[in-house]
Amino acid sequence: MNVIFLGPPGAGKGTQAVRVCERLGIPQISTGDILRRAIKEQTPTGLAAKAYIDKGELVPDSVVIDIVRERLAAKDCENGYILDGFPRTVPQAQALATFAKIDAVIDIEVSDEKLTERLSGRRVCLSCGGTYHVSRLNGSTTCEKCGAGLIQRYDDKAETVLSRLKVYHAQTAPLIDFYAEQGLLRTVDGSQPMDDCFSAILSALGEAK
Fold first, then answer.
1. Is 19 tagged catalytic?
2. Catalytic site residue 122?
């Protein structure tokens, strides 16, 4: 089964993608991971991407699409995969359709209010990278695991979260319509408990938990 995961920052799509991949025995493919892999392996498209990154420029769609095409041709994708973070725009989705057959698109929906609360309350350990939410810290500012200090990342500040969500909605709303028109879209409530969300995704994919 070839699946695309959509969802705003903080919706938990990365976590759910890992769980679903383990359940179905297929790889999770994120554009960040495949870019790093292509660069490390010095593939032609990886070297092309590196040239842009080294200059501090965004990797253009044409190169990202070539890298995705290259990755989906790998043997471990023969029985399916989950695409996480691609496509981000309708032109990318149209390009993807020329070399991949998508069976379902899971859209994990969470309200902007809930996402802002979830992300702006997140605190990260400076040392071990552990993550917490202020609602469960009881006023503590240190990591339960290693005792190091906790910080709020810049991209988790409320104003930054709202800016990220604005960009997401601008890019992704047309993408949601694009896949809905093809009958591929499956919407899941991402504000419910993690296990319930996982079960809902499996049901949307026709898999029993």
1. no
2. yes
Active site residue 118: no
Catalytic residue check, 13: yes
Q: For 58-67, what is each residue's pLDDT tens digit?
A: 788 898 899 8
Is a pLDDT exceeding 60 seen at residue 41? Answer: yes
Identified catalytic residue from 153, 157, 166, 209: 153
Whole-number Å distance between alpha carbons of 132 and 125: 8
Q: How high is the pLDDT of residue 59? A: 84
The one catalytic residue in 13, 118, 123, 186 is: 13
pTM of the model: 0.83
